[in-house]
Design a protein that fits this description.
Number of domains: 2
Radius of gyration: 21 Å
Largest sheet: 6 strands, mixed
Oligomer: single chain
CATH topology of the largest domain: Glutathione S-transferase Yfyf (Class Pi), Chain A, domain 2
Number of strands: 6
CATH class of the largest domain: Mainly Alpha
Strand order of the largest sheet: 4-3-2-1-5-6
């Protein structure tokens, strides 16, 4: 005899909810209120010149380890492309390891099949999170840094001797206060804000995160109605940090993470601004919408148990005219 529908539903809900909370406890640590709390990065060494520095600037010494779907890793690829550092800093890619819940190398790297193995190669007793991006020092066999906010500052300022575009300053001294202020707000409410929406474990935590997210997006849209970039007429690290979230927004965060009050392409200024950044020299080549959809929809099992990857969007919008180049007086890259 078939079980009564109410019993089937109740049993299934109980089992799934219990397992969901168990999986989310590892994927997305939460506060008592159910809000997502992102752990801090643990490797924070710095590339710098001078006798006291363990990691001096050099070509062909450092390797960026990235996952194409990850927005934090994508930041480093964008800066590497804008600065023209492709010949000086190699890239090694990892893919989501769905069954193990981490990252694995496309092909084994330094004898390691997975990213956690590389972390333990650098620090044998390491038991923390093995995240991307990673800046690996091939000379000493060490992880220099795994915090994207640090890495993009280093890539912008410490490798100019080997950059094809050394004159491009993405973190200019005269704008640093403004850049830092925007970065703090954008990180809390947009970059991490979309994760606070998607990984929220209570309705109240979700609504708070979603409200803050769209308040900042609305504010940015107003600012970008008066100037080409966030801090004026120049591309800066504030634009880079926002770009990688906006690139993923309509394809992933809008649906999978429930950030669905508005799409980025529907904003009168944010939509064209996103296309403007995408079309900067070298940036589009760092973007793979198919990898983004594959990694999010295929890897985040608690949010998408069926692992069905949507067909759209196809990314054609990113190549449409943005009409911002002639709208504002700006400095050219």
């Amino acid at each position: 005899m078939a079980l009564p529908p109410a019993l089937v539903i109740g049993t299934g809900r109980y089992i799934w909810t219990s397992m969901w909370h168990l999986m989310m406890s590892r994927l997305a640590p939460r506060s008592p209120s159910g809000a997502y709390q992102r752990p801090e990065s643990e490797f924070r060494h710095w590339i710098a010149s001078g006798p006291d520095s363990s990691f001096a600037p050099a070509a062909d010494r450092y390797v960026l380890i990235v996952g194409e779907g990850c927005p934090w890793a994508h930041r480093t690829l964008v800066v590497r492309a804008l600065k023209g550092l492709e010949k000086a800093i190699a890239v090694v890619k990892v893919l989501p390891n769905v069954n193990a819940g981490g990252w694995k190398f496309e092909t084994p790297y330094l004898g390691c099949a997975t990213l956690p193995e590389l972390y333990r190669k650098a620090q044998p007793k390491y038991g923390g999170r093995s995240t991307v991006p990673v800046l690996w020092d091939s000379q000493t066999g060490a992880i220099v840094n795994n915090e994207s906010a640090d890495l993009i500052v280093m890539l912008d300022g410490q490798f100019n001797a080997w950059a094809q575009h050394p004159g491009l300053d993405l973190y200019p001294e005269d704008l640093r206060g403004q850049i830092d202020a925007w970065n703090d707000k954008i990180y809390a409410t947009v970059n991490n804000g979309v994760y606070r929406c998607g990984f929220a474990q209570t309705q109240a935590a979700y609504e708070e995160a979603c409200t803050e997210l769209f308040q900042t997006l609305d504010e940015l849209d107003r600012v970008l109605g008066a100037q080409r970039y966030i801090c004026g007429d120049r591309v800066t690290l504030a634009d880079v940090r926002l770009f990688t979230t906006l690139f993923r927004f309509d394809a992933v965060y809008f649906g999978l993470f429930k950030c669905n009050l508005r799409q980025i392409q529907s904003y009168p200024n944010l939509g064209p601004y996103l296309r403007d950044l995408y079309q900067l020299p070298g940036v589009g080549a760092t973007c793979s919408l198919e990898a983004v959809k594959r990694d999010y929809y295929g890897n985040l099992f608690p949010l998408n148990p069926g692992q069905i990857i949507p067909l759209g969007p196809d990314g054609a919008n990113f190549s449409l005219p943005h009409d911002r180049e002639g709208k504002f007086v700006q400095r050219h890259l």
